[in-house]
Amino acid sequence: MSTTNEPRPATRRPGPSRSATAARGLLVGVLTAGVALGVAHLVAALVDPAAGPVLAVGSVAVDLAPQPVKAFAIRTFGASDKIALLAGVYALLALSAVVLGALAIRRRRYGLAGLAVFAAVGVAAVLSRPTATPVDVLPVLAGVGVGIAAMLLLVRAARTVTATESSRSRLLNRRQFLVTAAGTALAAGATATIGQTVGRRSAVGARSRAGVRIPPPAQPAPPLPGGVTAGVDGVSPFLTANRDFYRVDTALTVPQVDVKTWRLTLDGAVDRPRTWTFDDLLARGVVERDITLNCVSNEVGGPYIGTARWTGVPLAPLLREAGIRAGQNQLVSRSVEGMTIGTPLDAILDGRDALLAVAMNGEPLPLEHGFPVRMLVPGLYGYVGACKWLTSLQVSTFDAFDPYWVQRGWAADAPVKTASRIDTPKPFAQRRAGPVMIAGVAWAQRRGITAAEVQIDDGPWRPARLADGPSPDLWRQWTYRWDATPGSHTLRVRATDATGATQNGQRAAPFPDGATGWHSTTVTIT
Ligand SMILES: Nc1nc2c(c(=O)[nH]1)N[C@H]1C(S)=C(S)[C@@H](COP(=O)(O)O)O[C@H]1N2
Ligand SMILES: [Mo]
């Protein structure tokens, strides 16, 4: 009923059109979700960046994703898999927000119920993180709290419009709705932006890393012979620059560690459990080693392999000093964000250069590669030996504990398989007839590479020239000078390791213990 004394319209005006209601509902939903997320983001930046609901939901998705989905994501999006995942979470959120708004504009109760579902999903996701603490629920609760207030305000403003009959107050009320909507949008933008800024400033890892000095190694790595490089354009550099080194992990935000508060504990079935500070560790003296690291998820010919000069503390003496009890066979390493990795104790104690690495190519470990300390065990794929952002070591058995990837069906024991890759020519390259250099890398960490062979189309396998291989834990470059004839050709490579075993041509996917098969590439010669 209009309470103004304006003349009533001759005919009763119909309520706002369906499309106007739908538009308002959409605005209510999107703005409510926007301000809730903005506030949650800001509070998370203050409390714990990993407790942001979007990241937490994303992390749960990473952990729950069935193996084929993970493999697809890594294959399809590669290093952008995290961005793709977060884009997916945001898309789902946007969709839910639209539904939420449509419900809220009809019945406030439905809208509130929708927000309660958001809150429940958020809280469950945040608390399911392995490193969750009770304060981690604060971002979600603050976000949903402000979301409720925003939704009630917006719905009231939207409803007033629909209930009003006079055109003047209709106009006033429309303005009131728009003002409320604009205010909410502003609040969403402001909280998100401040959260972003605060988050960046609280990047303790970068600050801490800038202050770290690594002492000179007691045992420097022997200089690399010039002959490790084949001298062919297009082959992967022998040492991979830190910025080009592949990155594979489940962390949606790079863990931020301050070396001042960081501790490494060693416990489990040992006689003398111990805790070290970063300086305690460095005081033991560091060695320098050139080691090739690769990922079990690498497809044949894939990019997840690199070689760096690592500086670190030898791991075996640390374990021996602690006194390993009889019957133990697994070392469980844990990272600050809750990853667990299991390594055969045998592999660490057999004399290879198992390290607690603190530096990579002469710099403190980059944040993405595990600052301040990561494990490295030559000859094992990263998921069974290379825990980044390391914080605890526990001597145990394979029977007693399944680490993260083993729980998901990957092999518990995963030595690197002998493999080789053609780096040049690239797939579908066009070259002139005449001499063409085919070249690439081959690896079989711990065993070493003794031969690489190249096959053109269905011709015989012919030996490639091997560049120097100063350590079995390093990849080896190879080259083959091909007299190319016009036409389309398939090039293949296969390698032989020091046990005499030649790579088998049977194609197998990375799951569950590493891909097999010959890498091939097709080129056109004109
Ligand atoms: N904390 C943590 N450490 C981790 C992982 C991880 O997800 N979290 N991934 C492992 C895997 S699967 C590989 S292949 C290597 C990759 O190391 P990089 O990213 O430095 O190349 O780290 C290993 N260490
Ligand atoms: Mo990996």
TrEMBL record:
The alphabetized UniProt keywords are:
Membrane, Transmembrane, Transmembrane helix
Pfam families, per database record? Oxidored_molyb
Spell out where the chain crosses the membrane: 21-47, 83-105, 112-131, 137-155, 176-195
Disordered, as annotated region: 498-526
Residue ranges of the Oxidoreductase molybdopterin-binding domain? 252-399
Q: Which residues form the signal peptide?
A: none
Entry protein name: DMSO/TMAO reductase YedYZ molybdopterin-dependent catalytic subunit
Origin species, per record, is: Micromonospora ureilytica
